[in-house]
TrEMBL record:
Primary enzyme class: transferase
Pfam families assigned: zf-RING_UBOX (PF13445)
RING-type domain ranges (all copies): 14-62
Protein's recorded name: TRIM56
Single GO molecular function: ubiquitin protein ligase activity
Keywords in alphabetical order: Acyltransferase, Metal-binding, Phosphoprotein, Transferase, Zinc, Zinc-finger
Phylogenetic placement of the source organism: Eukaryota, Metazoa, Spiralia, Lophotrochozoa, Mollusca
EC number(s) recorded for this UniProt protein: 2.3.2.27
Protein's organism: Mytilus coruscus
InterPro entries: 6-blade_b-propeller_TolB-like, TRIM45/56/19-like, Znf-RING_euk, Znf_B-box, Znf_RING, Znf_RING/FYVE/PHD, Znf_RING_CS
Superkingdom of this protein's organism: Eukaryota
Domain B box-type: 97-147, 160-209
Length: 633
């Protein structure tokens, strides 16, 4: 199997200088650099952070490694293990590109045809040097291979020298720790893996990997990751077309406006178009660069597939596991990049905001309008992490309602057990109230009161959570679902309508809406959000005026809805097992939570009062998952 040029570059080119390796040395993370490039990099870091610098980061994977105290960078780098595989492939390519030359003879300016290859010295030898190699005591045990057997680069994998331990420089990495998933030497086993349950020889490990088809499984993961990149590249390419289309539309709009004003604005028209072209080119260049970056990583994953296949078929066990680790690091870095960077290819449309003074056509007008990018949004929150789970003491719980108080306390309704449960800010159950009927949703009114929708009873119940007492019960006409508070009013969802009540239970306004509004939430602008049939979110003003709708094939059976302090909208998909984050105008920013984050059949969504925690009634309401943000706008 021949290796592609890109794969060869991946194995033989330095990530720093992007040139062919010169004395390749590898760090403990198995990423290789030119010896002088690595020395220069460490020296530049010392110059930047001072001589007290004790650690360096790998340029590729950002892994951190300690520097040896009082050791010059040149000496530190020189003691790192040589990447003999990369060196042998470089030399094999040099032989393939020219005559088969003996390297020892070449060093003394003699040209002799090479007849064999020494895997230990990583050199090609002529007949005389071969004889000397066999008779010299220090090299007599070296493995010599006929040059006729090394036709292509993959042949070098069969005869590659053993991998040397980065920590114990003279020891061969002939062992494998299953607990830590690392190749190591016998000294590493004694020092670092003596307590590990399973440590075996690399031969045994490879046999086990092949038996369990782990190489094939990893190859499938590479293919899946490559597909993710291909999908993002496809989306980005489509967005490029939309960028051109929106630019053309705005250009026509500018020209139409130009017809409405006199010749005085010719210079302003030119200025506006220059601004449009400049921003459009800037955005195009940026998006194309991002697409190229995704495409490069996609090719990297494709190359990893080829390398893995070649190593599985041809490499020694130790070398195979060594390369497997490098490919895993590379794959993890690609997975991390696409998980964190999908928004880099977000849709971006150009828009045009006319100057308010255009209508008056005055000489004071400085420009025709402003070109700006529509569709690219600053994500003000990072991906939240599951930090706590709330569970009631009762069995078979189905939590359908969640709300919180300013002091951090959380209150939930359990439909199956007909209870209202209070938790403190640390997630500990504090108190419980048994209700006369099945509750659905709950909303807090102030520091200690909340209102509950009792669907089966067609009533609203008001509760003081300080002593868990029922304050009052108000009958309403229909079975009620979701409830949200808007000033001194309640916004309640029913089948085919949303109704506004005052706190006394008097109906003030009815807005017809198709579908069952299991959950409804309202923002500070008086816009409420509710479910329209199975998978569509509708946004309307309390006056009844329609604002927008949101539909996405990856949002199946819409349930919970909530809003953060930036006006971003969060919508849960019960059957798609995810939470979509939308902009205030209803455009998808990203799928912020999914199955890999532990989301399964989510019901109610709710933000804590300080907006630092997103609470999700998870697993069909059997518990409440608390996702905390570390980056709050």
């Amino acid at each position: 199997m021949a290796l592609s040029n890109i794969v060869l570059e991946n194995l033989t080119n330095c990530p720093i200088c992007n040139e062919k390796f010169n004395l390749p040395r590898f760090l403990p993370c198995y990423h290789t650099y030119c010896q002088h490039c690595l020395k220069d990099y460490i020296e530049s870091e010392i110059e930047k952070y001072g001589k007290s610098l004790s650690k360096i980061k790998c340029v590729v994977c950002q892994s951190v490694f300690p520097l040896i105290p009082d050791t010059e960078p040149e000496k530190y780098v020189a003691e790192l293990p040589m990447d003999n595989l990369a060196l042998s492939i470089i030399k094999r390519k040099e032989v393939g590109d020219s005559e088969n030359i003996c390297y020892p003879c070449k060093r003394i300016d003699i040209t002799s045809p090479a007849v064999c290859y020494c895997s230990k010295c990583v050199e090609f030898l002529c007949k005389d040097c071969e004889k000397y190699h066999k008779t010299n005591k220090s090299t007599s045990n070296h493995l010599l291979v006929s040059i006729a057997k090394i036709v292509k680069e993959t042949d070098l994998l069969k005869h590659a020298p053993p991998v040397i331990c980065p920590e114990h420089r003279e020891s061969e990495m002939a062992m494998y720790c299953f607990s830590h998933e690392v190749v190591c030497c016998s000294s590493c086993v004694s020092e670092h893996h003596s307590q590990c349950k399973t440590v075996a020889t690399v031969e045994h490990a490879v046999a086990r990997f092949k038996e369990k088809r782990m190489f094939e499984a990893f190859n499938k993961n590479l293919q899946k990751s490559k597909l993710k990149y291909e999908e993002e590249i496809k989306k980005g390419t489509e967005h490029l077309g939309q960028l051109d289309h929106s630019a053309s539309f705005i250009c026509a709009e500018i020209e139409e406006m130009r017809k409405m004003i006199n010749k005085h604005f010719d210079d302003l028209e030119v200025s506006a178009k220059k601004q449009l072209v400049s921003i459009k080119n800037e955005q195009t260049d940026e998006l194309e660069d991002k697409i190229d970056e995704f495409r490069m990583r996609s090719l990297m994953l494709e190359d990893s597939e080829q390398v893995l296949k070649a190593f599985v078929q041809n490499a020694s066990p130790g070398l195979l596991l060594f390369e497997m680790k490098r490919l895993k690091n590379q794959h993890m870095e690609c997975e991390k990049f696409i998980h964190q960077s999908k928004t880099l290819l977000a849709k971006r449309l150009l828009d045009f905001e006319p100057d308010k003074n255009v209508a008056f056509i005055t000489s004071s007008l400085k420009h025709m309008g402003k070109v700006f990018v529509k569709g690219v949004f600053d994500v003000t929150r990072d991906v939240p992490k599951n930090t706590m789970t709330l569970k009631t003491k009762r069995k078979n719980a189905r939590i359908t309602g969640i709300s919180s108080f300013p002091d951090g306390r959380i209150v939930v309704t359990d439909e199956n057990n007909c209870t209202l449960t209070l938790f403190d800010g640390e997630g500990k159950e504090v108190n419980e109230l048994v209700l006369l009927g099945k509750p659905w949703d709950v909303a807090t009114l102030d520091r200690h009161r909340c209102v509950i929708t009792m669907r089966g009873l067609n009533v609203l119940q008001y509760v003081n959570v300080n002593d868990m007492t029922l304050l009052r019960q108000i009958a309403i006409d229909d079975g009620c679902w979701g409830v949200s508070v808007y000033g001194e009013e309640l916004v309640i969802g029913f089948d085919n309508k949303v109704e506004i009540f005052d706190f006394g239970g008097r109906s003030e306004h009815v807005i017809p809406c198709l579908g069952s509004d299991y959950y409804v939430t309202i923002d500070n602008l008086g816009r409420f959000y509710h479910k329209h049939h199975g998978n569509t979110l509708h946004c309307r003003h309390v006056s009844g005026k329609f604002a927008f709708s949101y539909y996405n094939a990856e949002l199946v059976n819409l349930t919970g809805i909530t809003i953060d302090n930036d006006g971003n909208i969060y919508v849960a998909g019960f059957h798609s097992n995810n939470v979509h984050q939308l902009t205030p105008d209803g455009s998808l920013m990203r799928i912020i939570l999914s199955g890999i984050d532990g989301i399964y059949q989510p019901l109610k969504l709710h933000f804590s009062k300080d907006f630092s925690k997103l609470l999700v009634a998870n697993n069909n309401g059997s518990s409440v998952a608390v996702y905390s943000f570390t980056n709050i706008s």
